[in-house]
């Protein structure tokens, strides 16, 4: 009969349970009663094994994989270690995870009764799991759940640093509302102060400069032109404009205002100036964000138009998925559906009409310019979304190509094709990418050299095994020399030289031969003497070592004789 195992995922680790008689228990109507009673639950379901998470990062990685329906190396090793290879089924609560496990070779089970069993495990086995997780208590398990939940939510809500499209959407929305409010506020200041100085409206058309001029002049009849005219010159940077303001103030037909009204106008104008400065800062901030998020698209279409396209599409990824024809009419959906309903001409452009390229084109060629610009915007959006390195290399080449295209539509010369321009841009992009990679590698080499210099200054200590091996090598070298001498003595004895003096001479000759010549040439006494004389001249230090080896060999011989005597006794 097949055993049924249950995989229970917790914040502390993986738990594995098993039921021997699932065919009799798993399809009974009283499954709810078994799960509600702790005693009956423990009698039916048995604990098998538990694999704790070592760190919070490990727990987050495994839980994210389980949610995505993926099998980690820890989970597969845990299941293969604690489950038999044959005759076992694995019950899981997530069907996506079950598909991944079945691809790994596990026989997976998933139904409503499995969900009830795992709900019972969550209800009755958390205290047991808390004890297994390094002796934690139930309160610590709550901390595990809260900490893992915060980490998981943080990773889900975390924005990719290379994709700042959400701040771009909020920034352009605030910029549009701020521009709308500024226009209405500036018109209110002009209308209010116009009753006192109506000629100033035509002389200073800019809203910010108008409000700053109102703050300086205030009441035109009380303004001291002899002492404070330099303030106006410093603000406007135009002497003729200042003189025209002075002339208009002397001939103005506006009526007088009370001090309270003038104070309110002054305060309101100062607020308009602050809002105008805030809008300028927002424009700079938007440009910085788009330089990171969509450098190519912002180079082609401009900062404000790029932000509006991303905002209307929802994100940069959605904009990259759109075709060029969809980008061309993005923002003109009402006109498009109205044209489709009435079977009239569809619109040629939407938000893309705000581009300067379409504004410069003639009425005859506005449709072509919009289609060409939408094509380049689609390419730029895909490059910004999926390129490895953020750069506006492609955007610069596209802008040059767009300018040449507008000249060609106006009757200019034939320009180069898009394929040639993109090939040149891709070469420039690859060189930039290789430079960045080489710089990053050089930084890594510098840091590694700093660490290796510190490590090289420390002399490694010899371990006990290394010391022991060195002594063994010395002993083996000492034992090899007497074996060579024995061979030479045997050869001499076979030739019939049995005198003690001849034996000693042959032994001495064999010693010199072992240092200078191979062992096979020991039977030649003349060659041995010549090699011995050369060895004495060239290798004086080797003789000292030889004496040491002789002493060690004598000691080994004595030890062997003692062993033989003890064995014979």
Automatic annotation (TrEMBL):
GO cellular component, one term: box C/D methylation guide snoRNP complex
Basic and acidic residues: bias regions: 491-507, 544-557
GO biological process, one term: ribosome biogenesis
Residues of the Nop domain: 293-411
PROSITE patterns with a match to the protein in the record: NOP (PS51358)
Keyword Nucleus: yes
InterPro entries: Nop56/Nop58, NOP58/56_N, Nop_C, Nop_dom, Nop_dom_sf, NOSIC
PANTHER family found in the cross-reference section: NUCLEOLAR PROTEIN 5 NUCLEOLAR PROTEIN NOP5 NOP58 (PTHR10894), NUCLEOLAR PROTEIN 56 (PTHR10894:SF0)
This protein's record includes keyword Nucleus: yes
Family: Belongs to the NOP5/NOP56 family.
Annotated Polar residues bias: 436-455
Superkingdom to which the source organism belongs: Eukaryota
Subcellular location(s) of the protein: Nucleus, Nucleolus
A single GO molecular function term of this UniProt record: snoRNA binding
SUPFAM superfamilies recorded: Nop domain
The species this protein was found in: Babesia bovis
Chain segments carrying region Disordered: 436-569
Name of the protein in its database record: Nucleolar protein 56
Keyword terms, alphabetized: Nucleus, Ribosome biogenesis
């Amino acid at each position: 009969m097949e055993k049924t195992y249950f995989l229970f995922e917790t914040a502390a680790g993986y738990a594995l349970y098993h039921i021997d008689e699932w065919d009799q228990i798993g399809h009974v109507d009283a499954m709810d009663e078994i799960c509600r009673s702790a005693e009956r639950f423990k009698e039916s379901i048995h604990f098998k094994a538990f694999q704790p998470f070592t760190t919070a990062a490990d727990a987050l990685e495994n839980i994210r994989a389980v949610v995505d329906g993926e099998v980690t190396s820890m989970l597969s090793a845990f299941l293969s270690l604690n489950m038999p290879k044959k005759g076992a089924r694995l019950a899981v609560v997530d069907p996506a995870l079950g598909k991944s496990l079945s691809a790994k070779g596990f026989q997976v089970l998933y139904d409503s009764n499995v969900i009830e069993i795992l709900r019972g495990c969550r209800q009755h086995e958390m205290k047991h799991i808390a004890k297994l997780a390094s002796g934690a208590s139930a309160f610590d398990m709550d901390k595990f759940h809260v900490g893992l939940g915060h980490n998981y939510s943080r990773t889900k809500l975390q924005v990719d640093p290379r994709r700042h499209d959400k701040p771009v959407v909020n920034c352009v929305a605030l910029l549009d509302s701020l521009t709308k409010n500024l226009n209405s506020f500036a018109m209110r200041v002009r209308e209010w102060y116009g009753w006192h100085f109506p000629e100033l409206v035509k002389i200073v058309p800019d809203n910010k400069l108008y409000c700053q001029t109102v703050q300086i002049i205030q009441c035109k009849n009380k303004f001291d032109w002899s002492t404070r005219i330099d303030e106006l010159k410093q603000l406007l940077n135009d002497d003729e404009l200042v003189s025209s303001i002075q002339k208009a103030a002397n001939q103005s037909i506006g009526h007088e205002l009370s001090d309270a009204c003038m104070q309110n106008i002054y305060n309101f104008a100062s607020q308009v100036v602050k809002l105008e400065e805030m809008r300028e800062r927002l424009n700079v901030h938007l440009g910085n964000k788009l330089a990171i998020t969509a450098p190519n698209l912002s180079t082609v279409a401009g900062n404000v138009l790029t932000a509006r396209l991303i905002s209307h599409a929802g994100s940069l990824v959605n904009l990259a998925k759109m075709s060029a024809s969809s980008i061309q009419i993005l923002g003109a959906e009402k006109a498009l559906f109205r044209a489709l309903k009435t079977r009239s001409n569809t619109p040629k452009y939407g938000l893309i009409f705000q581009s300067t390229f379409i504004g410069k084109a003639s009425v005859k060629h506005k449709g072509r310019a919009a289609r060409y610009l939408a094509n380049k915007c689609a390419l730029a959006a895909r490059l910004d979304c999926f390129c490895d390195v953020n750069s506006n290399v492609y955007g610069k080449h596209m802008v040059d190509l767009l300018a040449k295209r507008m000249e060609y539509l106006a009757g200019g010369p034939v320009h180069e094709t898009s394929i040639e321009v993109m090939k040149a841009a891709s070469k420039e992009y690859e060189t930039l990418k290789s430079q960045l990679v080489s710089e990053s590698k050089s930084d890594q080499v510098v840091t590694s050299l700093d660490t290796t210099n510190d490590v090289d200054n420390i002399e490694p200590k010899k371990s006990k095994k290394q010391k022991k091996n060195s002594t063994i090598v010395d002993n083996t070298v000492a034992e090899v020399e007497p074996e060579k001498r024995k061979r030479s003595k045997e050869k001499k004895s076979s030739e019939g030289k049995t005198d003690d003096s001849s034996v000693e001479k042959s032994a001495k000759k064999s010693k010199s031969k072992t240092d200078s010549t191979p062992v096979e040439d020991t039977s030649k006494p003349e060659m041995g003497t010549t090699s011995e004389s050369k060895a004495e001249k060239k290798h004086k230090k080797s003789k000292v070592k030889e004496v040491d080896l002789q002493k060690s060999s004598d000691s080994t011989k004595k030890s062997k004789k003692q062993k033989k005597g003890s064995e014979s006794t």
